[in-house]
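input
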Amino acid sequence: MTCRRVPALLYGRLWNTWSALVCLSHAAQSWPPTVGHVSIDPLGATPVYQQLAAILRGRIESGELEPDRPLPSLVSLVQQYQVARGTAGKAVGVLVAEGLVMIVPGRGAYVRQRSA
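output
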């Protein structure tokens, strides 16, 4: 049986514009978007920016994102987690407010050294 691909619409916009056609029989298997074992639920009770901030916080605390190294760019966060650019920026802003990340003008966001 061949997959029938149709445009995927979410909130009235094309979802995942780089792959705007989705096979209906496989769509349920790929929703919500997952990265590794982490997924973001856009319809959940927790706002998406807080979910993304929690994921990034976990990556910082686990050592996956090392101190004095850049955080992934907003564009890569948007592509990786399939969120809006403003949502990714708001998640980074939460981490800045918590003191886990610092913004270097013209260079990007960097993970701060952990205090001992």
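quick obs: Confidence is low (pLDDT under 50) at residues 6-29.
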